[in-house]
Amino acid sequence: MAQLEIIVAPDPRLKVKSKSVKKVDDDVRALMDDLLDTMYAASNGVGLAAPQIGVAKRVLVIDMARGEEAPQPLCIANPEIIWTSDETIVNEEGCLSVPEYYAEVKRSAAVKVRYLDYENEIREMEADDFLAICIQHEIDHLDGILFVDHLSALKRNIVLRKMAKVKKQLTESEAKVPTL
Ligand code: NI
Description:
Blueprint: H1 26-41, E1 47-49, E2 59-62, E3 74-84, E4 88-95, E5 98-108, E6 110-116, E7 122-128, H2 129-142, H3 153-176
Antiparallel strand pairs: 1-2, 2-3, 3-6, 4-5, 6-7
The chain binds nickel (II) ion.
Residues 95-97, 137, 141 line the site of nickel (II) ion.
């Protein structure tokens, strides 16, 4: 188990289409554990996908209960959306890879997902409301899509330019720290 660095946009590793896992074995379970540790360490994180820690595998974790009750981690591999509602929902989203930026995104109001769980069992889950939004957001990560990609090109470019600037400043300030 390890707490890892979350990759911040813009970064080519966030644009990759991730590969399915053959099965949920000990290696994939270790990845799920790392994702959970990393997500819980980040403030307000309720979902994290493997590409966000630089692993191009179709694995993600979600915990909608964080900060409230006992943790209720959902560990998901190879998710497939097998049904979506006609009804849509618009909600303000954020992302650990796009810090301090929030925007309204339109998504399906309910979805049905088939996936492999922590024990490599095939499961189906119907989700609506915020869980449905979260699942669609995290599955997007596995396809190299960020929530800002749902915005107009103009808005998206403003955000990504801002992110690039913040990253550059961070790198420069790190470079000034003497290394011994
Ligand atoms: Ni995200």
